[in-house]
C-alpha cells in the first residue's frame, strides 16, 4: 500500500481571497508579523500499486484529472510505502 | 522572513465527507486502486520573527487560535528561513 501526500496550491499569479481573509483574521488577532498567507489543499491518498513508478503515475493522473485545476493550480506530491 | 508550511488534518476518528467524496470521484474515474482519501488544508504563511523559536511560537499560536479547530483537527508545520 502506498501513501501519497498531495499538495495543491494556487499558482503564484492567481488571486487568493481565502489566503487574504486568513491574513486579515490573523492580523486582527494581533499577529502583526504576518506578511502574506496562501491557502491550499492537502490530500492524503492510500492506494495499491505494484511499484513506486506505477503509484507515481496513478497519483499524477489523479491530480491532473480531478484533484487540481491545472489552469489555476499547481500540485506536487510525496509517496511513501506503508504496510 | 520565515516561511511556515502548515498542514491541518481532521483527527483520524472524525468523519471526512470531503475525503469520501474525492475517493468516490477517483474510483468513478477508473482509479480503482484508491483505498482511502483524507482531505485537509495546506497554508503557507510568511512572517517576520527575530529567531526560529519566536517564529515557531507565533505559528503554533496561529494554529491554535485560528487555523485549526483543536476539537476535530490536528496540525503540524515546517519552518524555513527565506530571504
Textual characterization of the structure:
Two copies of one chain form a homodimer. By secondary structure, chain A is an alpha+beta fold. The first copy, chain A, has one domain (2-81): Phosphoribosylformylglycinamidine synthase subunit PurS (Mth169, Chain: A), CATH 3.30.1280. Chain A contains two helices and three strands; from the N terminus they run E-H-E-H-E. Chain A has helices spanning 17-28, 52-67; strands at 2-10, 34-47, 73-81. At the A-B interface, strand 1, helix 1, strand 2 and helix 2 of A face strand 1, helix 1, strand 2 and helix 2 of B. Strand 2 of chain A pairs antiparallel with strand 2 of chain B.
Strand order of the largest sheet of chain A: 2-1-3
> What share of residues are in beta strands of chain A?
35-45%
The end-to-end span of chain A amounts to 6 Å
**Total DSSP helices of chain A:** 2
The largest sheet of chain A, given as strand count, sense and whether it forms a barrel, is: 3 strands, antiparallel
- Helix percent of chain A reads 25-40%
Order of helices and strands of chain A: EHEHE
What would you say the CATH architecture of chain A is? 2-Layer Sandwich
Class of secondary structure makeup of chain A: alpha+beta
| CATH class label of chain A | Alpha Beta
Please give the most extensive interface between any two protein chains, plus how many residues each contributes.
A-B, 33 and 33 residues
Query: What does the overall shape of chain A look like?
Result: elongated
Radius of gyration of chain A: 16 Å
Structurally, the number of domains of chain A stands at: 1
Number of strands of chain A: 3
Low-confidence blocks of residues of chain A: none
Amino acid at each position: 500500500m502506498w501513501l501519497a501526500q498531495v499538495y495543491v496550491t494556487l499558482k503564484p499569479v492567481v488571486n487568493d481571497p481565502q489566503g487574504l481573509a486568513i491574513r486579515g483574521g490573523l492580523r486582527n488577532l494581533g499577529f502583526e508579523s504576518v506578511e502574506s498567507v496562501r491557502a491550499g489543499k492537502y490530500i492524503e491518498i492510500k492506494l495499491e500499486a505494484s511499484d513506486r513508478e506505477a503509484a507515481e503515475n496513478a497519483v499524477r493522473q489523479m491530480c491532473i484529472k480531478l484533484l487540481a485545476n491545472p489552469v489555476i493550480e499547481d500540485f506536487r506530491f510525496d509517496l511513501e510505502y506503508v504496510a
